[in-house]
Design goal:
- The protein has about 270 residues and is α/β, with parallel strands linked by helices.
- It has two domains: about 140 residues, 3-Layer(aba) Sandwich (Rossmann fold), CATH 3.40.50; about 100 residues, Alpha-Beta Complex (Hect, E3 ligase catalytic domain fold), CATH 3.90.1750.
- About 50% of the residues lie in helices and about 15% in strands.
- The chain is built from eleven helices and eleven strands.
- The strands form four sheets. Strands 2-1-3-4-5 form a five-stranded mixed sheet, sandwiched between helices.
- It is elongated.
- The chain starts with a helix and ends with a helix.
Length: about 270
């Protein structure tokens, strides 16, 4: 009977998360000692082979968690059948992070049990509950995306560039924060457009040959992109950037800005490549 019990006992790891070093010293509430004891008791009562309790100390702003990464390494090695947590909200700082981890466990056929909530992913009702939580996560993620899109939309509409702080090659900001031409690089951009326009008139040249020839011309003149030799990707990005003739695009939004353009819209349309 004992041998049979040992065979069917599932290898189990428990995950204990604490948000701060202060919380790790607390004995009450849902601190480290409380979670550890409760998860250990649950494993004993349910005949789980509790191999290790992993303590994950992290702050709310951390993108990576050492405890989660350690647990994943055990899972990758095939050492884990079950993961115990005290509660979803205690183990994960957001439903988005929970969903990613839950999908990972499902992929590796590892059962997740939330002890305080009585939810087991191996049971239909438990799978349904975790599925609802994941749906909430997807909704939460979509709301965040919409808020970000809305913020960028307003930036573009108001004339504030919404793609981060780096301006296109050929532009820079003056001491007042205004967009101005980079004297040297703006001339390189003009050269790229004019030379490509000239190369396009040679029908014998394929797209790749035109690009290679243009790269050779840039190299011969010691033109560089952020201190490095130009690549075909740099060429493609420049030739497709409407910013150079005064139009900023974001999704379906198009708007014009009061800064000095490097080329005309006509030249852009003649040269633009995808």
């Amino acid at each position: 009977m004992k041998k049979l019990q040992e065979i069917i006992m599932k290898n189990t790891f428990s995950l204990v998360r604490i948000s701060t070093s202060i919380q790790s010293e607390e004995n009450g509430g849902t601190g480290i000692q409380f979670q550890t004891e409760k998860l250990s008791q649950y494993a004993t009562l349910n005949d789980f082979n509790l191999i290790k309790t992993i303590t994950d100390v992290c702050s709310g702003g951390l993108a990576t968690r050492d405890g989660i990464e350690e647990l994943k390494s055990h899972i990758e090695n095939g050492e884990v059948d079950v993961v115990l947590i005290w509660s979803v909200s205690r183990a994960f700082r957001s439903m988005i992070h929970f969903t990613k981890f839950y999908e990972y466990l499902k992929k590796h056929d590892v059962e997740l049990i939330s002890v305080s909530e009585g939810i087991r992913s191996s049971r239909k009702e438990g799978e349904m509950m975790f599925g609802i939580m994941c749906s909430i996560s997807a909704y939460e993620k979509e709301l965040i995306r919409e808020r970000m899109m809305s913020g960028r939309y307003m930036k573009v509409k108001s004339g504030i560039r919404g793609f981060g702080s780096k301006l296109p090659f050929g532009y820079c900001k003056n001491t007042d924060g205004e967009i101005v031409l980079d004297e040297d690089n703006s001339k390189v951009v003009q050269y790229i457009f004019r030379k490509m326009n000239s190369l396009l008139k040679n029908s014998k040249l394929t797209k790749s040959k035109r690009t290679r020839r243009l790269l050779k011309l840039l190299q011969d003149r010691n033109f560089t992109y952020d201190g490095k030799p130009f690549t075909r990707w740099n060429i493609r990005d420049i030739l497709n950037n409407t910013f150079y003739f005064g139009e900023l695009k974001y999704s379906t939004i198009k708007t014009t800005h009061n800064y000095q353009t490097i080329i005309s819209k006509r030249l852009f349309n003649q040269v633009c490549i995808s």
